[in-house]
């Protein structure tokens, strides 16, 4: 089985790189059977070669149907997520026994091309025209000749490309662009080549992260495209990955997974010249913590964090390193310094959070007086948080006092309830509203999309966070495979919260909007909001 899987993954690499997969339509309604017919009509030699390798057309069609089912679960394809989604689907379907004949046929018929692709980390020259043509058809692009003087083509972030192009004729040597609303950025090769020819440096800024490309950092064809993905890990993955640093280091920043690819080099991409990567940290950190900070790179092979030598600017609160290697980056501080900055709180008496992914967040929130336990020794991190609990924590995190009320506005919030003043004040401020003018539902659970919407509203009340326009919402939500399940009323709020690193998926690809939020999840999200107020 292991040998087959290895062989299958080699075939997968070829399949993605060669563009055979890109013959499939983006629209789920189109179906893979019609895609097979298109492939057979436009590229009959591909089908003939696969059949000649030892499988029949029926097996090819069955394979495409299985692949369609898996891809349809992962959201809409676009230029930015194309390679990653296809790899995920292939990794799943590739292991099914029913499709072994198809993979063996591919390996037999395209052995030389596979070997060339793996050895060179780029397309075999004979395959480039096919892949480019199909990609344009797949993603709805028109055939256009290369555009000079900036080369801005249609992409999910066309506004960014236009902004960069507009700076080419100006005297400034550094083009600074805020790209925080785009976790995945697609830049045309023609545009990047123009930036290099002008001798300009391109500085791309996300929330907490800055990547600086000097002239000539990227060497690519004008018709190619560069995708830069700068995403933070989900809470569970962040906790798991941070633990690899050991007990002597404490994670201070988000963990940024920086991935770079081009159409011709979707894997193992390396910059031609080193680029600068800078991570920022909060002003809340004490001087002791700041002095102990260092930027680390996660070694995927050794499964550990490597300390990097870089420039630490204490006044601007960032650390910058020079590298040509994409991957995971984060800021860590020495434990001795973090103890000074964050004394170990009494919340260590919560026996049910030891080893929990949100243990650190819960302790910090408890120390700040923003959350409390269900009992002296129990926090119940996995229990669903109620609307009353959430309203009270939000009110405290925003620095609002509960207030004194003789009468309440909600009939189901009695005057003798512990949350009476908090709920009424939260409703008065506009943080959270009732089901109606008289009903609040204090004991009801809160869904993840409701929390995102409420936190977004609170941040906007405080005039904090990067705004997200209506036109940007679909692209911002597209990182979640289940984004179609997000309620219409909550989409703007979830997009805003995601853009400002308040919410993360329950997995790398799913947001789970209708799942009830746990006390741990709510605590972590509110802490991220609190750190930005």
How many helix segments?
20
pLDDT average, as an integer?
77
Quick one: how many beta strands?
13
Quickly count the domains.
3
Low-confidence parts, pLDDT < 50 over ≥5 residues? 1-6, 16-34, 126-153, 337-348
Oligomer: single chain
Structural class computed from helices and strand pairing: alpha+beta
What Rg is obtained from the alpha carbons, in whole angstroms? 26 Å
Strand content: 5-15%
Give the topology:
Blueprint: H1 2-18, H2 32-42, H3 44-52, H4 57-72, H5 82-93, H6 100-109, H7 111-120, H8 128-138, H9 158-167, E1 174-178, E2 184-188, H10 189-197, E3 201-206, E4 209-213, E5 225-232, H11 235-242, E6 249-251, E7 256-262, E8 275-280, H12 287-292, E9 294-299, E10 304-307, E11 311-313, E12 318-323, E13 327-334, H13 335-341, H14 359-367, H15 387-397, H16 420-429, H17 448-461, H18 473-477, H19 491-499, H20 519-530
Parallel strand pairs: 1-3
Antiparallel strand pairs: 2-5, 3-4, 4-8, 5-7, 6-13, 7-13, 8-12, 9-10, 9-13, 11-12
Helix pairs in contact: 1-5, 1-6, 1-7, 2-3, 3-6, 4-5, 14-20, 15-16, 15-20, 17-19, 17-20
Features:
single chain, 533 residues, alpha+beta, Chondroitinase Ac, Chain A, domain 3, 3 domains, 7-stranded antiparallel sheet, 6-stranded mixed sheet, 20 helices
């Amino acid at each position: 089985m292991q040998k087959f899987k290895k062989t299958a993954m080699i075939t997968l690499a070829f399949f993605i790189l060669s563009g055979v997969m890109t013959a499939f339509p983006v629209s789920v309604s189109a179906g893979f059977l019609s895609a097979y017919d298109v492939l057979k009509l436009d590229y009959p030699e591909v089908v003939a070669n696969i059949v000649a390798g030892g499988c029949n057309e029926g097996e090819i069609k069955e394979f495409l149907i299985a692949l369609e089912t898996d891809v349809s679960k992962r959201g809409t394809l676009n230029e930015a997520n194309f390679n990653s989604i296809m790899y995920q689907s292939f990794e799943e379907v590739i292991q099914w026994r029913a499709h072994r004949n198809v993979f063996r046929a591919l390996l037999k018929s395209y052995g030389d091309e596979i070997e060339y692709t793996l050895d060179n980390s780029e397309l075999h020259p004979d395959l480039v025209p096919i892949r480019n043509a199909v990609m344009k058809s797949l993603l709805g692009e028109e055939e256009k000749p290369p555009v000079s003087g900036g080369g801005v083509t249609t992409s999910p972030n066309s506004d960014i490309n236009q902004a960069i192009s507009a700076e080419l004729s100006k005297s400034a040597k550094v083009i600074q662009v805020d790209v925080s609303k785009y976790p995945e950025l697609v830049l045309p090769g023609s545009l990047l080549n123009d930036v290099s020819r002008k001798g300009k440096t391109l500085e791309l800024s996300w929330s907490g992260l800055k990547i600086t490309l000097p002239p000539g950092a990227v060497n690519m064809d004008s018709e190619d495209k560069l995708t830069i993905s700068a995403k933070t890990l989900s809470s569970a993955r962040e906790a798991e990955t941070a633990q690899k640093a050991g007990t002597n280091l404490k994670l201070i920043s988000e963990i940024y997974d920086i991935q770079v690819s081009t159409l011709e080099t979707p894997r193992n991409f390396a910059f031609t010249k080193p680029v600068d990567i800078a991570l920022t940290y909060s002003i809340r950190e004490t001087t002791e913590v700041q002095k102990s900070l260092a930027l680390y790179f996660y070694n995927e092979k050794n499964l550990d964090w490597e300390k990097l030598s870089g420039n630490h600017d204490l006044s601007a609160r960032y650390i910058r390193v020079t590298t040509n290697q994409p991957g995971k980056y984060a800021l860590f501080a020495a434990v001795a310094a973090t103890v000074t900055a964050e004394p170990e709180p009494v919340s260590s008496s919560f026996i049910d959070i030891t080893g929990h992914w949100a243990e650190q967040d819960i302790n910090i929130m408890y120390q700040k007086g923003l959350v409390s336990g269900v009992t002296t020794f129990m926090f119940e991190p996995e229990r669903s948080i109620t609307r009353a609990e959430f309203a009270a924590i939000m009110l405290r995190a925003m620095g609002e006092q509960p207030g004194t009320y003789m009468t309440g506005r909600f009939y189901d919030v009695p005057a003798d309830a512990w949350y009476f003043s908090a709920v009424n004040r939260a409703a008065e401020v506009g943080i959270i509203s009732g089901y109606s003018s008289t009903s609040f539902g204090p004991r009801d659970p809160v869904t993840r999309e409701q929390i995102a919407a409420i936190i977004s509203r609170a941040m906007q009340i405080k005039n904090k966070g990067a705004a997200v326009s209506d036109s940007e919402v679909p692209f911002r939500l597209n990182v979640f495979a289940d984004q179609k399940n997000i309620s219409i009323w909550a989409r703007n709020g979830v997009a805003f919260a995601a853009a400002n690193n308040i919410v993360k998926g329950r997995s790398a690809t799913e947001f789970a909007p209708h799942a009830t939020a746990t006390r741990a999840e709510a605590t972590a999200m509110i802490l991220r909001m609190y750190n930005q107020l």
